[in-house]
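> tool_call: predict_assembly(chains=four)
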Amino acid sequence: MGLSFGVIGYGYWGPNLARNIFEEDEARLTMIADQRQARLKLAAKRFPHIDLVEDSADVIRSPKTDAVVIATPVKTHYALAKAALEQGKHVLIEKPLTASVAEAEELVNLAEQKNRTLMVDHTFVYTGAVRMIHKLLESGEIGNPLYFDSMRVNLGLFQSDVNVLWDLAPHDVSIMDFLFQRSPVGLTASGSTHFGSRHENIAFMTVFYPDHLVAHINVSWISPVKIRLMLIGGDKKMIVYDDTEPSEKVKVYDRGVDMKNNGQNEESVYDILVQYRIGSMQAPRLEAMEALRMEIRHFLDCVKNGDRPQTDGRAGMRVVQILEAAARSIKQRGAFQELNLE
Amino acid sequence: MGLSFGVIGYGYWGPNLARNIFEEDEARLTMIADQRQARLKLAAKRFPHIDLVEDSADVIRSPKTDAVVIATPVKTHYALAKAALEQGKHVLIEKPLTASVAEAEELVNLAEQKNRTLMVDHTFVYTGAVRMIHKLLESGEIGNPLYFDSMRVNLGLFQSDVNVLWDLAPHDVSIMDFLFQRSPVGLTASGSTHFGSRHENIAFMTVFYPDHLVAHINVSWISPVKIRLMLIGGDKKMIVYDDTEPSEKVKVYDRGVDMKNNGQNEESVYDILVQYRIGSMQAPRLEAMEALRMEIRHFLDCVKNGDRPQTDGRAGMRVVQILEAAARSIKQRGAFQELNLE
Amino acid sequence: MGLSFGVIGYGYWGPNLARNIFEEDEARLTMIADQRQARLKLAAKRFPHIDLVEDSADVIRSPKTDAVVIATPVKTHYALAKAALEQGKHVLIEKPLTASVAEAEELVNLAEQKNRTLMVDHTFVYTGAVRMIHKLLESGEIGNPLYFDSMRVNLGLFQSDVNVLWDLAPHDVSIMDFLFQRSPVGLTASGSTHFGSRHENIAFMTVFYPDHLVAHINVSWISPVKIRLMLIGGDKKMIVYDDTEPSEKVKVYDRGVDMKNNGQNEESVYDILVQYRIGSMQAPRLEAMEALRMEIRHFLDCVKNGDRPQTDGRAGMRVVQILEAAARSIKQRGAFQELNLE
Amino acid sequence: MGLSFGVIGYGYWGPNLARNIFEEDEARLTMIADQRQARLKLAAKRFPHIDLVEDSADVIRSPKTDAVVIATPVKTHYALAKAALEQGKHVLIEKPLTASVAEAEELVNLAEQKNRTLMVDHTFVYTGAVRMIHKLLESGEIGNPLYFDSMRVNLGLFQSDVNVLWDLAPHDVSIMDFLFQRSPVGLTASGSTHFGSRHENIAFMTVFYPDHLVAHINVSWISPVKIRLMLIGGDKKMIVYDDTEPSEKVKVYDRGVDMKNNGQNEESVYDILVQYRIGSMQAPRLEAMEALRMEIRHFLDCVKNGDRPQTDGRAGMRVVQILEAAARSIKQRGAFQELNLE
């Protein structure tokens, strides 16, 4: 029959989760909760057969749901996920996991104690593009990673409860977490607020890893154009990932730098210290499956086999640790924050 | 007859300066100096009639030069410019003006004392693109500026004597200086080094101005692709300036944000605080003249009329002040540096 | 209650039509017919409440349908539309209207005789982009149209019953019909077949109008990349319409040519006869509504008010007349075909 | 000492040829002729040491020139080249070779009789991009070529003595001649004139080769944007060559079509006859040398070794044969013209 799902929150992202669960053969969408009648009406038109409720507690307590999907604002995540885990439900939760590290830690421990799957919807980790980049890094083709530089800006969706960093940067931080599988040592961040908002609508963050690997994230809600651009440089090859491209999203450049022995000319003023390697470029074919579909299947597999998801609660907690440190750095106008991720 | 020019340094940028002086009717190119025979040989092929010397002092002392153009590495700028000004020559000097604020200040004072024109080759200030953006800001069409966000990355030209910030960021900082004509209050910066270099090859800087105007600069020598992208947002319109576009480099978007009275719905979780305005986009026609040509003409005018150049020594000094503060911030891993520009 | 619709054909395009009818408040989707069980199963998942039948005749005869939507292969259009009109149903039919002019004419006459709405799904006519271009031409801003040049190529969807011209060119021909509202005088066409097919998979057509207006269409099923590019030149301004752009699909260039009196220099060999005007470019804001939604609403309005649709049967017949003439020209290796559209 | 060159015509293209000859070590630029004083003045500024004359006959007769470069309007090509060959000079001549096939044939025969090198400046044949495409075709990687589709449009340079086909299409036809090295069997062409000109400013041509290989060329002087796009499809891989790209001009797509045995489903209306192969894309590194430089070197080699140039007089004649046939087809409104190239 398949695992039964209840979705809490049918706003911007919830409908995508609901549709993918609905279309997946191994899953059953049984309930949707939203406080707003207009959203429930919309859900009713698309899913006339399932239970539609206002109170999220109904979804959490119902025997009709094996798993609960939480697609509500960040500040509500902790309480909903906690209640669901306590009821013995598996939980798939929108990013970021929680509004604080303390909350994240409690959920992670609770899930382990209850032996339930807690997975964070770090959607990009399940895209063909990011999985291909992961594979290229794993295989050694890129060499040692030198930098990760992401620009994620557009006009849109000021949120009432978080700043742009909590809204957009989880995508980048979760990708970094998945790609590099190493712990950053610290970060510095800055940002600015406009239009009388209390929350930053433009922010920048630099995250330092061992061995000079550096990651930079530029997020904004007030860009006139939508940019989704990542540069990932290794000492062998370099990657450009442009998510706005309809195809060829990932391009691998056989370009790089070779150090030149420059001893004898040290005093020469225009001396170039390095040589450039400019080779061909390749755009590998990417898996075509929709990321959410692949994510739902991974969730189903993890529940079935008791496996740890690639974006489990601990990954979600690491993302929150970085966001929390970035928020402190912004308040301290760029002051360095050491990181000691779990 | 026109002003006579001697060019010191015939490496990467010097030939462009020399060619533009040569082709300008009001100017005469009379001398070129470079320590390297190979470079002099190249100059001889192109300019068989002019004096070619190894020693820059010959250019500075020669009665054949009214003005000296300095296109040598940064660390040599101060001594060469000082000697030229002391000889009563007008000076056009490559960016950045000097390697330190102290040096810059001395040159500025010396030029004023000697009543000679000291102009910094902040080339971008003379492009049709930047002049159009300036005009759009001046006219009020953009509204109050909210942010300036520049990405200037490519593979190339590691320099032996400076880091990437001193090499590439002067372009952006001089554009900011020209566009906003206001003093920043502080900055934070970060960066990373690779390939065993002592100098950063990738760096990020956030500069804070009064009234929440924020500027962000991302520079790199180790990007597989060349990006020259600036976003400039105002509270009325927003600009995208892509210098790699063959035409339509500057696009003006009638896009922005209007705050919405949201009082009664404060508890509603998905409430959007703002409304977006998505109007048309316009790419204004830009002046087609080569920037260096316009710059040379401006230099000639300033010398002739005793006017202060748009990119005078003080503008050059302000750029160096920001670079110096950024270098300190990088060393202190992002610590905020207050700025009090002259 | 709204008009009730039955959709015949739930293959590639039918689901889009069905979805838009389903989501439109003034319409009711009541039946879907498809000969293939797999397609019906898919329809059942999405629309569990409606009647799903194998035999299209059931849709045509059912009292549950006021209007019949035909989304089947071209060769079946005539018989299905004829049967539906004879049953007194309104008909919305996928492009091209029929496989021959004779069939088209019969349907047009039948619809008039039965006083029923016959509308062809020339989808592009209902896009914000084409409607904006129409407005720009109507207003005189573009001046007299000089040319229309469309490239519509991609890898894909060889069809068993028609060549690439019948598959893709109806889009362009219907756009031309809508934009220029004048009759072409003739055409020439060419094409080629590959992979052992009987049908052209790449084809080119030039259509001549009075006053030197010329239209050119380039269609292909064997391009490695998807291109949807139209250039439309007037003697005042010129338009580039790139349908693959996520935004700014339509760009209006203040560019053109002014003739120069060149009498006295006639013998001069390099003399340029013309002057170019290079002004600004503007990308107007387009209506955001999905084209099919707008089309369905237009169909509903026409049925309700007895109006003639913008893409009525006669427009569909004109498109078929051009396709038929092009097929003859291809067979005659480019020979000119005179056109006398009704 | 190197071969000595005189350049006739210092208009639009002549300066590029002169500069490349000047900078080539094995060549000497000794004379330039142009009827216009303003052009000679410009040449004098750049090349103060060489002979500048008004009369082209001076260049042709001078003992200072071993080779004559002809960069004048098409209608003057025949007489100038004939005179130069008769004087025993080698000739490098701008495309198209002549204004008629008869003229071309005479020049080809004269060059052979005089044993002199006659080479046509089919510049694109010497670009890194076209040479790479040639290599890809030669190696079999692309498979059997199916089509060649070129769009070459921009705003500009109406010429007084020829139409757009004679101006722009030689680029494409010479590339086809180089790439496919087989004889076309016929062609059809069409075009239109505007702005009161006698000459077409927009034209289209379809050229048929054996084995269903088809070439299509779209040229225009009245496009608001510059497009230089070629699609070249083989039955194994397909190429996109975009000459406006600053890098990655040539992209090789592992995309194509495989025929599917479809026998049993013939009656099924939506049946797809083919399968698509969507693999990776590769952009090979291209030779960076300027095309004209490579061309000049090739000319020098051919003169020295008595080799036949890759773009010899016969290649030039084949291009003129196609242009002449296209002109006839345009006059006959698309009528097919058989081709029997030498």
